[in-house]
Amino acid sequence: MTIAGLQKLSLIDYPGKITAVVFLMGCNFRCPFCQNPELVDYHYRDETIQIKISEKEFFKFLESRKKLLSGVCITGGEPTINSDLPEFISKIKKLGFSVKLDTNIFNPLMIEKLINGSKENLIDYFAIDIKSSPENYSKASGVEIGIKKIEESLKIISKSKIPFELRTTAAPRIIGREEIDKIKKWLKNSGVLEKAEIFAIQQFRNEKTLDEKFKKIKPYSDDELKIFGKILEPYVKKVEIRGI
Ligand code: SF4
Q1: Nearest protein Cα to ligand 1, atom 6
Q2: Pairing with 32, which of 120, 204, 206, 235 sits 20 to 30 Å away (CA)?
Q3: Could you tell me the pLDDT band of residue 52, with boundaries at 50, 70 and 90?
């Protein structure tokens, strides 16, 4: 595992908690609208950016923040591509922190391992990316995928008692009103939507994107994002529009 970055303090990444955010290098997706290409692959990294922290430094930092922080958000890239993720999280939990995991859920084996693989309660909160409706998942994720693995992970997480939120980035050309409606039907019929704590619609930003073409795409207006929210509202505990 490579720790590619550390945000020492965040008040917004984990509902109700003051956290640090740790960014793990690498991702199994290539979403064209990705706003963190430098975390996806070294190929996308600006050579002037030198961000790499040893695990030793990271845990030393956490030790020093035991009284100030209550949680750690693990994000990426995609954290579940790291086979040593359970051990890494276990070390964080032993220091007394709650753990939130951001994931694209394309690795159901790791999701299963994290939830049911040991007696330890490793994850306290999941933030799950929903890239698109099932039929458009390959386009949205930038890789040829079947939806089976995504659905398998959704089943494992929604069967567990671990709270989770769903998040969709409203990237034009990928997401629109019809697409949100299809996502709603898909997740409602599979019983996932009603169990989510929050469905977050995230504003797309075009300053930095994995696919250069997306830099030319204008984000949706705030009002349009609110309309997306309205489509979901009757079926979910809470809708949040983020980044406006
Ligand atoms: S937006 Fe897509 S490509 Fe970027 S880190 Fe997330 S899953 Fe990976």
Answers
A1: 77
A2: 235
A3: confident
- In terms of Cα–Cα distance, which of 28, 21, 18 is closest to 7? 21
pTM (2 d.p.): 0.95
Phi-psi label, residue 55: left if phi above 0, alpha if psi -120 to 50, beta otherwise: alpha
Question: In a 10 Å sphere around its CB, with 0-12 CB exposed, 13-18 middle and 19+ buried, how is residue 218 labelled?
Answer: exposed
Q: What is the distance in A from the centroid of ligand 1 to the CA of 33?
A: 8
**Residue 89, both tokens:** 């999280």
Ligand 1 pocket test: pick from 2, 33, 36 the residue with the most ligand atoms within 8 Å of its Cβ: 36
* φ, ψ dihedrals at 214, nearest 5°: -75, -15
**Cis bond before residue 146 (omega within 30° of 0):** no
Reply yes or no on whether the pLDDT at 49 is more than 90: no
Q: What are the structural domains of the chain?
A: 3-242 (3.20.20.70)
Question: Cα–Cα distance between 91 and 210 in angstroms, integer?
Answer: 32
Residue 50 CB neighbours (<10 A): 7
The residue whose CA is least distant from atom 1 of ligand 1 is: 34
Alpha helices in 36-81 (DSSP H): 37-40, 55-64
**C-alpha closest to that of 72 among 129, 3, 164, 9:** 9
User: How many angstroms does the Cα of residue 64 sit away from the middle of ligand 1?
Assistant: 30
